[in-house]
Specification:
The protein has 123 residues and is of the alpha+beta class. The chain has three helices and five strands; from the N terminus they run H-H-E-E-E-E-E-H. The protein has a single domain, classed as Aspartate Aminotransferase, domain 1 (Alpha-Beta Complex), CATH 3.90.1150.200.
């Protein structure tokens, strides 16, 4: 199965708001940059990459989640990060039923993550 098919199956496994949310997040991520690649890692998690890991998505019991691997190094002017705030590497966004995030704000965060990855590659 391809990573895209694995992600499709994960979304279908939660036929409620969590699957819808992950599908929406996925579409927003992929619309940010056509070079973003979907992969499937860590015992069943969708991962979006562009020269390195941008973020990992998943569905939990009462939320959908995006974890940015280098989130602590990213500016968050729209205050999207609301989880894993104490760590020195990752930051996450927990999405609960009824939550909405402006796609532009999420795409700006994704672009920042891509820029950070690309800057590290140039060193």
């Amino acid at each position: 199965m391809t990573p895209g098919e694995e992600i499709d199956n994960l979304i279908a496994s939660a036929p409620d708001w969590r699957g819808d949310m992950l599908a929406h997040l996925r579409a927003t991520i992929l619309a940010t940059d056509p070079a973003i690649v979907e992969t499937w890692k860590w015992m069943g998690s969708p991962v979006w990459e562009l020269g390195g890991i941008i973020c990992v998505g998943n569905i939990h019991k009462n939320k959908a989640k995006l974890t940015f691997m280098d989130g602590a190094a990213l500016a968050d002017p729209d205050h999207l990060f609301n989880a894993e705030l104490a760590g020195n590497k990752r930051r996450a966004i927990d999405f609960f039923e009824g939550d909405s995030t402006p796609p532009e704000a999420l795409q700006a965060l994704i672009r920042s993550a891509i820029e950070l990855i690309q800057a590290r590659q140039k060193k």
